[in-house]
Here is the input.
Amino acid sequence: MKKQLLVTAMAVGISLCGFAQTKGTNALSFGVNSTTNKLSGNNYENKVKNNSFTLGYGYFFKDNNKIGLDLTYGLNKNTYGNDNINNQEQKSYGGNLSYQHYFPLVKTLFAYAGGKASYTHSKNNSEFTNTYPQVTNYTSNQYAVGAYGGITWFVSKRFALETSLLSADIAYSKTEQNEVSANNAFTKSEYTSFNLSSQGFINNLGFKIYILF
Here is the structure.
């Protein structure tokens, strides 16, 4: 009887460990990051608010192989100066397609490696109403492809926690700037950039939570 119970427990344990990585599993992920920094003085206040939200869906099309889609939204506000008369606001929207292959390490702990392609559109509005009033608007589009890897812990049958530890990206961006001064003078400029970047171990550490079903 004890032997049968032990075999049954082992079978259940193995099934729970393997469930999250098996073909046909769905993975819903979400993330929220909100920070506020405030600096005050005599008739002076500087307040910075940063908010970002992510929502993603992944599908294991075969064992230990997942494709995914992530959508992102960010809002950053910076208010500063006497009586808060100067303001900056940036909104960003984007998404990425990804592929990840998982490698078992110890029990429910897995390493992964994969690649992704992403797009981000952002708008930045700056308004200065002090000595030299002016309004400046930036519009930017960025395209990137890259490779990345990290660690995933399948905490239970329904939940997983994942972090990215290594990444390398190639990015291209195009930005348009429009500026209107106090005398209604208007200027417009465009510039582009191309860069290759990489991040080492534990740089830019971030976590993602998965709901598995």
Summary: Residues 2-19 form the longest helix (18 residues). Residues 97 and 167 are 15 Å apart (CA to CA). The domain at 2-212 is CATH 2.40.160.20 (Porin). The longest strand covers residues 159-181.
